[in-house]
Structure formats: structure tokens, C-alpha cells
Amino acid sequence: MNSAKLQDIDPRHYLTGVLERIVSGRTKINQLHMPLPWNWKAERDGSEAKLAA
To answer: Which of 3, 17, 25, 42 is deepest in the core (most CB within 10 A)?
Structure first.
């Protein structure tokens, strides 16, 4: 949670997103580095930019 705060991410939003990805199966065992706060934020920012375009 503190790592999320350091990345200026709402901890509740971050945790909800990570748990949804794991439970839904979108994050595979070899992708466990993706839910780290800095990777999660970069992916989220990239997808928001694509939606805006």
C-alpha cells in the first residue's frame, strides 16, 4: 500500500484493480511483475491515453 502511495496511486483503487486482474485470470503466473505499482500505473496511464485518442 505504501508503494502505491509513493507512486501517487489511490491504494484502494490499486488493490481493487490488482485483485480483479488476478481473480479473472488476466494476470498469469509469469506476469506477476505487472501488478507492481509502478508497472500498474504505467499500464493504466497508457490505456487512458489510448481511450482519449
So the answer is: 17
- DSSP states along 30-46: GGTTTTSHHHHHHHHHH
The pLDDT profile of the chain, 53 residues, written as one tens digit per residue, is 888 888 888 999 889 988 888 889 888 878 877 888 888 888 877 776 666 65
How far does the chain reach from its first CA to its final CA, in angstroms?
31
29 residue type, one letter: I
Please classify residue 23 by burial: count the beta carbons closer than 10 Å to its beta carbon, then call 0-12 exposed, 13-18 middle and 19+ buried.
exposed
